[in-house]
Specification:
alpha/beta; Urease, subunit C, domain 1; TIM Barrel; 2 domains; 39% helix
């Protein structure tokens, strides 16, 4: 039992906020009370065990952020020469060559995932959806998936491992997805582990790289196990190649291939028309915005306001280290808010925070995440708003995005357990994680020379 007390404001699931105590028990939010009321709830329920208290004085408490679209392996390949502001047709082979130089295996996947997940937790992200697309021929795919999942669990984060595909053999991709489900979440409804810390999904990279057969076979795996389906659509290269190869728009193909449905989330959605937005809404699709990737690379910007106004749930993702180069989801929520007036309709700070929390969680089919309410998962981020960067701020919730672009949380909790305390990882030393990846990259690059 833990009482989080004395917050300046707690951002609640119903959109309200204000001072409150949060009583956490058994990984969930047990109760939300007026300030000072947490102890009374515990006495009323006759809880006999020890009670911890964690001060949130001078802080705003939000749900733990949910990064709905990341490529954790790319955390090892940031700011590489030839990857800044180039067309995606050039970017993809440059990144592929970098992966080949280092090698894709359990060891490299673990080192990269530890960096990406640690960075996420330190930025207030409690759940990361890792769309892993890099599977060279002969890769032990179960070992890579297991290493990634283990890295997240060791640090205390929730992980959604998306068995992706990028030009993979369709039958091999489907067999790999089956094996990963069997190894990580055997027999679990919806592909979610018993403790909720791990989820498995499937997702081709997009119509620009994967065939109708890949979409069909991975879709069959999803149906057998009740998995969520995810793919990328309507970035620059996706639209161009769909027209060149098929004479069609990406969403036309996805609809024909059975991938416009209420269990599907589409990332990016930069170049979509008003008519296509209506089709997406009618199909019950959810979306993920990735402005920190698409904007600086020149690949487009999603009309998020229009999507929301059409009734489409929209989440937020950073995408990977090869394009965004940062896993700071709150910074991307700020960017989404600031660029939104240029994409059809401006977003308020609260709307943008909802993208990074509830919107992302809904796209994962995880109604217990991304919100603060009784019965929800006790995944929380505690943000100090008492410093000079917040001086003069009239609205501390809006100030989370408008002020202090590089803001990091003081404390982060996952399932009621502290994973970041006073700005530091609880499970391990940050320097150790940095050193592990640096040594691996150095050794493997030296071996290639």
């Amino acid at each position: 039992m833990l009482i989080l007390h004395d917050a300046v404001a707690v951002l609640l699931a119903d959109g309200s906020e204000g001072p409150a105590d949060l009583v956490l028990h058994d990984g969930e939010v047990l109760a939300i009370t007026p300030p000072g009321g947490g102890s009374a709830v515990i006495e009323e329920r006759g809880y006999p065990g020890p009670v911890e208290r964690l001060s949130a004085a001078g802080c705003v408490v939000t749900p733990g952020l949910v990064n709905a679209h990341h490529h954790l392996f790319q955390s090892a390949f940031r700011t590489l020469p030839g990857t800044r502001g180039v067309p995606m047709r050039e970017w993809l082979p440059t990144m592929a060559a970098a992966y080949a130089e280092i090698g894709v295996d359990a060891e490299s996947a673990r080192a990269a995932a530890r960096v990406g997940v640690a960075e996420a937790l330190l930025a207030g992200v409690t759940t990361v959806a890792d769309h892993h697309l890099t599977w060279p021929k002969g890769t032990d795919t179960v070992a890579v998936a297991t290493a990634t999942a283990t890295a997240a669990r060791e640090l205390g984060a929730r992980l959604v491992f998306v068995r992706g595909s990028a030009r993979d053999d369709p039958e091999e991709a489907a067999a790999s997805a089956e094996a990963i489900v069997g190894a990580l979440v055997p027999g679990r409804p919806g592909g979610v582990s018993d403790d909720g810390l791990l989820q498995v999904a499937v997702g081709p990279a997009g119509v620009h790289s994967d065939s109708p057969e890949t979409f069909a076979l991975l879709g069959e795996v999803a149906r057998r196990h009740g998995l969520r389906r995810r793919t990328q659509a309507n970035e620059q290269v996706d639209v161009d190649i769909a027209v060149e190869r098929y004479g069609r728009r990406p969403l036309d193909l996805l609809e024909e291939w059975g991938w416009l449905a209420d269990d599907v989330t589409l990332a990016h959605l930069c170049g979509v028309t008003d008519a296509e937005i209506d089709r997406l809404a009618a199909a019950g699709v959810t979306a993920t915005h990735a402005p920190g990737c698409d904007l600086p690379m020149g690949w487009g910007v999603s009309p998020v306001g229009k999507l929301l106004d059409a009734g489409i749930p929209v989440g937020l993702g950073t995408s990977g280290g090869g394009s965004n180069d940062a896993g700071h989801l709150l910074a991307d929520a700020r960017l989404a808010m600031q660029v939104s007036p240029l994409a059809g309709r401006g977003l308020s700070a609260r709307e943008s925070l909802l993208l990074a929390t509830r919107g992302s969680a809904d796209g994962l089919g995880r109604a217990e995440l991304g919100r603060i309410e009784a019965g929800a998962a006790a995944d929380l981020a505690v943000w100090d708003v008492s410093g000079v960067a917040d001086a003069g701020v009239a609205d501390p919730v809006a100030g989370l995005l408008w002020a202090s672009p590089g803001r990091h949380p003081t404390h982060v909790l996952v399932a009621g357990r502290q994973v970041v305390h006073d700005g530091r990882l609880v499970a391990t030393d940050e320097a150790t994680i940095v050193r592990e990846l640096g040594v691996l990259l150095g050794e493997r690059r030296s071996a290639r020379r």
